[in-house]
Structures are given as C-alpha cells and as structure tokens.
Write a structure and sequence with these properties.
The complex is a heterodimer of chains A (317) and B (286). Chain A is of the alpha/beta class and 317 residues long. Chain A has one domain: 4-Layer Sandwich (Metallo-beta-lactamase, Chain A), CATH 3.60.15.10. Chain A is built from eleven helices and 13 strands. The longest helix of chain A is centred in the N-terminal third of the chain and has 24 residues. Chain A starts with a helix and ends with a helix. Chain B has 286 residues and is an alpha+beta fold. Chain B has a single domain, classed as Immunoglobulin-like. Helix content of chain B is 17%, strand content 36%. In chain B, a hairpin with a 7-residue loop joins β10 and β11. The chains are: A alpha/beta (317), B alpha+beta (286). At the A-B interface, α1, β1, α2, α5 and α10 of A face β1, α1, α2, α5 and β10 of B. β1 of chain A pairs antiparallel with β1 of chain B, so a sheet runs across the interface.
C-alpha cells in the first residue's frame, strides 16, 4: 500500500466513520440508535418516520421516506426532515447498494419530506417534483426555516439549503433506473397544491407521499374537496401495497386509504352542515370532525387547523 | 426483511481493522457534541413574556395622549386563546347598541403592521357585532378601541396565542386565488333577537402581506391587499373599513345591524393595486 493509497483510505475511513457515527448518535429511532429501514418488496426500501411533531429529539424524522433500486441506479423518494436525517438515509442506502442515486423525488413541499434534499443533490441526484413545487416551496422557504427552526432547533434548520427541483412534472413522467421504470404522477390540489405519487409497476408498490395518511391525522394544506375528488383516481392505481407519507412502511392498497376518506368526508359533512346553519367559523371548528377523535394520533394538534382551512374553503361552495 | 444499520456495530467493525481506535473515540465524542450543546431557543410563551409590550408606543402613535377608558361594557372582543390556524384567527367585536359608537380600531400589537382594521360605523346603522378573521404573527395582545360620537375612547383587549400568520404564504393554491380574485358573496342569517339582522360579506382576495421572500426570485412577494371597503344597504352606508395586511386571505366580515333600510346590499372594495370590486346583492340572496 502506497502512502497515497493509505491517505485515501484513512480519509475515506474517517468520512464513513463520521457519517455512521453521526447517524448513530443523532438518529434515535424506536428507542434505539438504529436508523430503521425495511425492504417491503424486492428492491423497495422504506424508513419509517415517527408519528409525531418535528422536534429536537426526533430531528424532523417524522415522515416515511424510501428508495427503489434498479439494475443501474437508485431513486430516492423524499429526503427527510433535516440534513442529518437525509445523511442517515443515504448512509443506510449505501449499506444496501453502491449504485448511483440518479433521482430524488419530492412528493410535496413540506419540510419533513424535503429538508434533507441537499444530501442527495450533492450525491449527484436529479431532484424531481411537481410543476408547482418550485413556486410553493420557494414562497415558503424563509417561513419554513423559521417556523421549523422553532421545532427542530435553529442549528438544524439553519443547516438546510432549500433545494428546489431540477425537473418538474406537469402530468406524468417516467424515470428509468435500468430495467426498472417508475411512474411519477402529478395531482391536482389535494394535501397541497404540489403532490406527486411514485408507482413502481415491477412490485406494484405506490409511494403515495402525504396523499395517504395512516394513524397520523391527515393534514389539509391544499383543498379538502380536491383531495376527496381525486381519491377514486388514486384508488384506481393498480398497486398491491402503498407506502403512506405517515404511518406504517407498507399497507394493502387500496384499503389503506379508507380511514382517511372517512375522516375527510366526516369533516366536510360536519362543516357543510354548520355553514348551512349559519354557524360562524369560530364555533364550527370546535365541533367539526370530533367524532373521529379516537381514531387518530395528533388529532388535537391538527383537527382544528384542518377544520379552519376546510371551513374557509367550503363556505365558498 | 428488517434492515437495521446500527452505528456502533459498524464503528467496531471498522476500528478492528485499524489502529485508529483513539481517533474513533474522539470522532464519536465530536459527533455527539452538537446535539449536546444545542442552545435552547425561547418558546413563544417565553418570547411573549420577555418582549416589551408594544402597546404603550402604539397607543401614543394612534391616540396621542387622549384618555382610553378601560373596563366598560361598551365594547368587547372575542378571539380564541389559542388559534387553530395563525393565518385565520376569528375575531368578534361586540358593540353596546345603546351607545353611539362611530369608530372601532382593531390592533394586533405584535404584528408587523399592528392596525388590522379601522371600522367607521354609520349613524343609525345599529351595528352590534362585527366579526372578521386576522393573521397573528406572534403571541400578542389584541386591542379594540371604540370611539363614541362624543369623542370618548373605550379600550378592551384579549390575548391570542398564535405565531407565523403573517409570514406564512397566503394562498394554499395561488392559481385558484388569482383566477377567483374579486369574487364576492353575501350571506344573510336569521337572528334570535328581533330587530337585529345578520349578514356576512366575503371577498376573494389573496391579501398578500408582502412579508414573504420568494426563494426562486429572491424578491419579496409584493403586498397586495384590500385597503378600503364600504358596505351599504338600500343606498345607505352601514360601515366602511380601512384595512391592512393583518386581515386574512379571502376577507370575511360578518355583522349584526339594526338598520331597517330595505333594498339590496352593496359592497365596494379597493385594493392596493387600485382594483375596484363592486357588487349589489338582491334583498333575499344568501
């Protein structure tokens, strides 16, 4: 071994060591220091985020993120809620495969899904998102860095370089990973105005992003009517399993979406009745959707906000 | 298959192949350091309690050294103690119908532009309630100051816990917001008290605060909001409003009035770009 080789080896060793040690020290998940990752179908790996608000303790690791391995390359779906989460995900990916990460797909603009983007961009990935993602995330970048900084801490938020997509999807886009094609579909306004899903026909696996919530109360930051109107089309995707944006790493499709549809329909029905009766917003949001309260985690945190947004939308019907 | 990568095991495997165990320990210590040394940011509660109240300065700017009478029943204000959405915080003003209140100023003390709205109430309009929705940017007192026909000022306040309502981008769907801007809707409600009637005027407008910087263009998204509004019934003015950026997207004004003027409602709104939105509503339209 030459001196030059030795130096390269030492440098590489320290780099790996640092990433792994950092991931281990900063990624408490499921009560251990492991960054969980599960192969839910051949070549489809998913990390389960916690069902929680973003916090210092969880470093924003609250969304399900994953990747699909083709013959030549890998596509990552969402990047996690902070740079360390993105780094831990990339380190875990590297334990599975040495193939290049050709794409990072952002399912939508929310920080828990995009704050690790720079890690994959630096690794050479082309970032792909909805045609409205650049405007939506661009307009919210400052706000997110401040508001999320209050949750995960200003140091972690400050380390984030808001990384916008290199390529956008207006309707549908197919990406090739070598012998494996993924279908990215852009949706009309639903959870947000920039939702995309990623379908892997080879294993009939659908990465739904936050168009599907399980266990974690669905959050409306787009349009409740748009979400409900597109649910049938979403259900028609010929998938056998779904990776929800929040919840388990994998669930049977399309049954997995049913509780969410019940919640959204209940909330809409309660609010439409209140609006028809002339109940003002301040009073309507106190009761709307409450019959769903026992079925969801984080219900008290998000239901009032959902009801407020949905009331403001539905009163224009 | 469950795939788990524990850092400790990986580190041990690597270290056994080298003589750099000491370096490993140092690196591990370093990598732990950032998490352990994080400064604890002040919670919104702490920030609110530590911040010097903006009110003395605002009070002086808005009302000079005029006396503000506290503790009267002349005006009351209702807002949620903790807002469900800081960009849409419902605020209700209740006015004593036996008093000749001509003007109400709504002030959100800690907002970047604290005067949310000034309502001028027409003589004989009999306005007893006025509700709107506002943005709240930080934990704040919300003051309402009523001025009576004889020039006396009455003040009341409430505290609202909410944050980020002004900095958050307005439209959840900017394409729809642009397409529908200026659309108006008037609803009328039955009331339990005889002689008082209730209606709600809604206007589609982004009411952009001008406080969001677009990361794509690196420019601030221009402020664009309703500045003036007049609501009349049967040709007689009920109230008018001068508004600012603290009024929520798609401004809504719900009010109880005692005017027995017949005829149609008429609303006219002007925004910062000089757009005028005007509409008459048939007597029974809801």
């Amino acid at each position: 071994m030459t001196r030059r080789d030795l130096m390269k080896y030492i440098a590489a060793f320290f780099k790996t060591l640092f990433i792994v040690a950092f991931a281990a020290s900063t990624m408490p998940a499921k009560g251990s220091d492991a960054f969980n990752l599960e192969e839910i179908a051949p070549g489809v790996f998913v990390h389960q985020g916690r069902i929680a608000e973003m916090s210092r303790a969880n470093q924003g690791d609250i969304a399900n993120i994953g990747f699909v391995v083709g013959e030549e390359a890998v596509a990552m779906v969402d990047s996690g809620g902070s740079v360390p989460v993105g780094e831990a995900a990339l380190a875990a990916l590297r334990q599975v495969t040495d193939k290049p990460v050709r794409y990072l797909i952002n399912t939508h603009m929310h920080p828990d899904h995009v704050f690790g983007n720079q890690v994959f961009k630096e690794a050479g990935a082309t970032v792909v998102g909805h045609r409205r993602l650049p405007a939506a995330l661009g307009a919210r970048a400052d706000f997110y860095k401040t508001s999320i900084g209050n949750q995960i801490g200003p140091e972690l938020a400050g380390a984030v370089d808001i990384t916008l997509p290199d390529e956008t999807v207006a309707d549908e886009m197919r990406i090739d990973l070598g012998g494996r094609e993924l279908v990215i579909k852009a949706w009309q306004t639903a959870h947000t105005d920039n939702d995309v899903t990623v379908f892997d026909p080879a294993t009939k696996t659908l990465f739904a992003g936050d168009l599907v919530f399980m266990e974690h109360l669905p959050v409306i930051d787009g349009s409740i009517t748009g979400w409900l109107d597109q649910t049938a089309e979403l259900e028609a995707i010929p998938a056998e399993r779904v990776v929800p944006g929040h919840g388990p790493v994998s669930a049977p499709w399309p049954e997995a979406i049913e509780p969410q549809t019940t919640y959204l329909e209940t909330l809409a029905a309660d609010l439409r009745a209140a609006i028809a009766d002339g109940v003002p917003l301040a009073d309507a949001v106190e009761t709307a959707g409450q019959s769903e309260s026992g079925k969801w985690q984080l219900f008290d945190f998000y239901n009032g906000r959902n009801a407020t947004a949905a009331f403001a939308e539905l009163e224009w019907e | 298959m469950a795939y788990s990568m524990t850092g400790a095991r990986r580190v041990r495997a690597l270290a056994s192949r080298t003589t750099l165990a000491a370096g490993t320990a140092l690196l591990l210590a370093l990598s732990f350091a950032p998490a352990g040394s994080l400064a604890v940011a002040a919670s919104p509660e702490q920030q609110a309690s530590e911040a010097e109240s903006a009110w003395p300065g605002l009070r002086a700017d808005l009302f000079g050294d005029r006396e503000l009478i506290e503790g009267s029943d002349l005006i009351a204000i209702e807002a949620p103690a903790r807002a469900t959405d800081p960009a849409v915080v419902p605020v209700k003003l209740k006015l004593d119908p036996s008093q000749e209140i001509r003007k109400v100023t709504l002030v959100i003390d800690e907002n970047p532009a604290p005067v949310a709205a000034t309502f001028d109430i027409a003589e004989g309009a009999g306005i007893t309630e006025l509700s709107t929705r506002v943005r709240v940017n930080a934990y704040t007192d919300v003051h309402a100051v009523a001025e009576t026909a004889d020039g006396k000022l009455y003040v009341t306040k409430t505290f609202v816990k909410a944050a980020g309502g002004c900095a958050a981008p307005a439209a959840k769907d900017p394409e729809v917001a642009a397409r529908e801007m200026g659309k108006m809707k008037m609803r009328q409600f039955e009331t339990e008290t005889g002689g008082t009637q209730e209606a709600q005027l809604m206007i589609r407008h982004p009411n952009n605060s001008g406080l969001q910087k677009d990361q794509v263009t690196l420019l601030y998204i221009p402020a664009h909001f309703i500045t003036e509004l007049e609501v009349a019934k049967g040709g007689e003015r009920l109230f008018s409003m001068s508004g600012g950026i603290s009024i929520s997207e798609d401004p809504s004004f719900r009010f109880r009035y005692g005017s027995d003027a017949g005829g149609a409602f008429h609303a006219k709104a002007t925004d910062t770009e000089g757009n005028v939105f005007e509409k008459s509503f048939g007597g029974s339209q809801s």
